[in-house]
Design goal:
Elements (H helix, E strand, L loop, with lengths): L4 E4 L3 H13 L5 E5 L11 H6 L13 H7 L3 E4 L2 E6 L4 E5 L5 E4 L2 E4 L3 E3 L12 E3 L3 H13 L4 E5 L3 H12 L3 E5 L11 H13 L3 E3 L4 E7 L1 E7 L2 E4 L3 E3 L3 E3 L2 H5 L23 E3 L6 E2 L6 E2 L4 H15 L13 E5 L2 E7 L3 H6 L4 E9 L10 E9 L5 E8 L6 H9 L4 H5 L15 H14 L1
Parallel strand pairs: 1-2, 1-7, 2-3, 7-18, 9-16, 10-11, 10-16, 11-12
Antiparallel strand pairs: 4-5, 5-6, 8-17, 13-14, 14-15, 19-20, 21-22, 22-25, 23-24, 24-25
Helix pairs in contact: 1-8
Flavin-adenine dinucleotide binds next to helix 1, strand 2, helix 2, strand 4 and helix 8.
Length: 449
């Protein structure tokens, strides 16, 4: 009998691969080892659970474990941690149950995800100090807000998780402050978008401490204060959201190569340096469609898509995992902020481009139609080739228009080609010239001069 397709990690990458492989080849044995109890959960929904918009933590589960086991015939084993991989013998060692055991594999997928970075802050172990990565952590935060009734919260890190949690905690009635070490929040979204979001956060009553390095937390049992370079403040709750690190130790110890970003290096099929060992999702690199370089952008669609492609490949139909553009969108109270591609000038130059950008403000509907608001579009192109390199969009409605630019990036369109796209128009939805087209028009003019 053929050795099974073994998967380490039961979330977006792992369960997408398992389901797709089984659908393509029902005869293939598929085993998933997940060290926790939750599988196929939407981590992206956790801030909205804390906020109270999602009633039950269980609502975030896309597919129940029993459905995987009974309807999809996947041997899903929760509470099982893979502690070793031997790629030469093609076995994994699994702990869970009574005794550790060895499991042979025909193909292996590492979908171990990422973990929240925990800087060596003083007082990280105090009650009321949390990171937010797992469903259990979401549950703990929600309980703490309900039971301990904190009046204030300090969020360390002005990235998208920090901003989503700021909104959630303001909604729960807390006074919220965000501490960010860098001069601005939402670093990958570019200056223009970040500044608009920051202004809006302040309007919503969030205190922003930019350029402020946090040193630790004070308290006796429970957190009572936050200490930062040059000052301190009282707080009843802390969320540390300073980014994630890929879970690569298991792979690294097995001699599986890491790439320049520190995540697992993969080829276009998600293969590692071992023929039958694949990696996908937050633990793995993917090729950036603009730079052509390996990149690590830990986001949900990347994980789902790569997992699905690898499932298809393992079932016998080699399928590329697809490139990434780092397309992301975040809700910050009444604003949407989105980004795609390469916005950072230094990074664009490193990749061999000569970037030029424009920022335009445009209405989301014609002047005579009710409900219009202003959208700021920043578009970056390459002087030499005219190619679109990236964009950022911020406004009360319509930030999802970033998808038009993401599509342009995947097709390597020039700014003029983007400007000439035949996009949909009717007054309730858009002006005749969609804001993305207007930005392309202005940038094309700048590129010509
Ligand atoms: P994970 O979801 O991390 O799953 C990996 C699994 O592997 C875990 O269940 C872990 O327990 C298990 N595991 C690890 N090691 C082992 C082992 N040795 N043995 C067995 N099991 C193991 N992305 C977006 O695109 N949009 C969003 O709006 C968004 N919001 C987010 C909000 C929050 C608060 C968080 C935390 C993440 C958010 N993300 C968002 C990111 C998104 O959730 C991840 O990109 C996605 O979950 C990655 O899936 P994955 O399968 O690669 O890894």
């Amino acid at each position: 009998m053929e050795d099974p397709f073994v998967i380490v990690g039961g979330d977006a990458a792992g369960m997408s691969a398992a389901s797709k492989a089984k659908r393509e080849d029902p005869e293939l044995d598929v085993i998933v080892f997940e060290k926790g109890e939750w599988v196929s959960y939407a981590a992206c929904g956790m801030p909205y659970y804390v906020k109270g918009e999602v009633d039950e933590l269980d609502d975030l589960v896309a597919v129940e474990p029993e459905t995987f086991r009974e309807k999809r015939d996947i041997d899903l084993r929760t509470g099982h941690e893979v502690v070793d991989i031997d790629p030469k013998a093609k076995t994994v060692t699994v702990s869970g149950g009574s005794e550790p055991f060895e499991q042979p594999y025909g193909s292996l997928l590492i979908g171990t995800g990422a973990r929240a970075i925990e800087p060596p802050f003083e007082g990280l172990d105090l009650d009321g100090v949390f990171t937010l990565r797992s469903m259990d952590e979401a549950d703990s935060i929600q309980r703490y807000v309900t039971d301990a009734d904190p009046g204030s919260a300090a969020i360390v890190g002005g990235g998208y998780v920090g901003i989503e949690m700021a909104e959630a905690l303001v909604e729960r009635g807390l006074d919220v402050s965000i501490y960010e070490m860098l001069p601005r929040t939402l670093q990958p979204f570019g200056e223009e978008t970040a500044r608009t979001v920051e202004e809006h956060l302040r309007e919503q009553g969030v205190d922003l401490y930019l350029d402020t390095a946090v040193e630790g937390f004070a308290g006796d049992g429970s957190v009572e204060g936050i200490e930062y370079e040059g000052g301190s403040a009282a707080t009843d709750l802390v969320i540390v959201g300073v980014g994630v690190a890929p879970n690569v130790e298991l792979a690294e110890e097995a001699g599986i190569e890491l790439g320049p970003t520190g995540a697992i290096a993969t080829d276009e099929y998600g293969r590692t340096n071992y023929e039958d060992v694949y990696a996908a999702g937050d633990c793995a690199e993917a090729e950036h469609v603009v730079t052509g370089e390996p990149d690590h952008v830990p986001l949900a669609l990347t994980a789902n898509r790569a997992g699905r492609a690898i499932g298809t490949t393992v079932a016998g139909d080699p399928t590329p995992t697809g490139g990434i553009a780092g397309t992301a969108i975040v809700k910050a109270f009444d604003l949407g902020a989105a980004r795609t591609g390469v916005l950072d000038e230094e990074r664009a130059r490193e990749a061999g481009f000569d970037p030029v950008s424009v920022s335009i403000d445009a209405p989301t509907r014609p002047h005579y139609y009710p409900g219009s608001s202003e959208l700021t579009v920043t578009l970056v192109g390459d002087t030499e080739t005219g190619r679109v390199l990236g964009a950022s969009i911020v406004g009360r409605e319509g930030a999802k228009r970033i998808d038009t630019v993401a599509t342009a990036l995947s097709s390597a369109l020039t700014v003029t080609e983007l400007q000439n796209l035949d996009l949909a128009y009717a007054p309730p939805f858009s002006p005749v010239w969609d804001p993305v087209l207007t930005a392309a028009k202005v940038l094309a003019g700048k590129l010509e001069n």
